[in-house]
Write a structure and sequence with these properties.
- The protein has eight helices and six strands.
- Helix 7 crosses helix 8.
- The strands form two sheets. It has a four-stranded antiparallel sheet. It has a two-stranded antiparallel sheet with strand order 5-6.
- Helix content is 32%, strand content 16%.
- The chain starts with 10 loop residues before the first strand and ends in a 6-residue tail after the last helix.
- It is of the alpha+beta class.
- The chain has three domains: 47 residues, no CATH class; 70 residues, no CATH class; 42 residues, no CATH class.
Length: 206
């Protein structure tokens, strides 16, 4: 009998092997725990990984369905990147999203119809320079809380680009309580109304 070679940490199509379980198939094949690139964890027999019978958790079939004229649906990378930064601890952006409790609508995570539901719930993308943004940055990716914005819009919506100290934040709150409108303060600070509103409500660290 040949030496056993573990498949842990190897990548097969969309699947990364993360753990060897104690389970085996009827024909003796080791069953591994794998994480799909969409973030879902599944168990797959070793022979299915090696022969390519199992390429993903099922999302590969959905992705193939988005192919038209040899290219992917234009919104699939947006969908995939959203899932990765919220569900995959190995993703460089996970610390700013998944680790901070930013979640995704369960319907959008459905292995079979998630992508289709995602593009159905989204408003039309105005142009190539727009990227996906959450309207309320403290809530997750859900219908009604996502929109399309340019990078300039996104920078304006970040509170740490509005004020840089607790004193500045307090000045914003004092101005508001003295009768100044959110809109006028936002205009002075060159930011969005929602960014000022979050400072007033103390929905930031300031």
């Amino acid at each position: 009998m040949g030496k056993f070679i573990s498949l842990v940490n190897q990548v097969f199509n969309y699947l990364t092997v993360i753990n060897k379980t104690d389970k085996r198939t009827n024909n003796g094949s080791v069953i591994y725990e794998c994480v799909c690139r969409c973030g879902k964890i599944i168990e797959v027999p070793a022979y299915c990984l090696k022969n390519g019978n199992t390429k993903s958790c099922g999302c590969f079939k959905i992705e193939k369905a988005t192919v038209h004229g040899g290219s992917y649906h234009q919104l699939y990378p947006t969908y995939h990147n959203m899932i990765m930064r919220c569900t995959n601890p190995n993703n460089p952006s996970y610390k700013d999203y998944g680790e901070q409790g930013i979640t995704i609508c369960p319907d959008w995570l459905d292995p079979k119809n998630g992508f289709i539901q995602f593009i159905t719930d989204l408003p039309p993308k105005p142009g190539p320079e727009y990227t996906l943004e959450r309207i309320n940055v403290y809530d997750g990716y859900y219908p009604g809380n996502v929109t399309w914005a340019t990078l300039v819009d996104q920078q304006r919506n970040r509170t740490n680009n509005v004020v840089h100290s607790m004193q500045e934040a307090e000045e914003v709150r004092i101005a508001y309580h003295n009768g100044k409108s959110v809109a006028s303060i936002a205009k002075e600070k060159n930011c969005s109304n929602s960014a000022i509103d979050r400072i007033i409500r103390k929905d930031t660290w300031y």
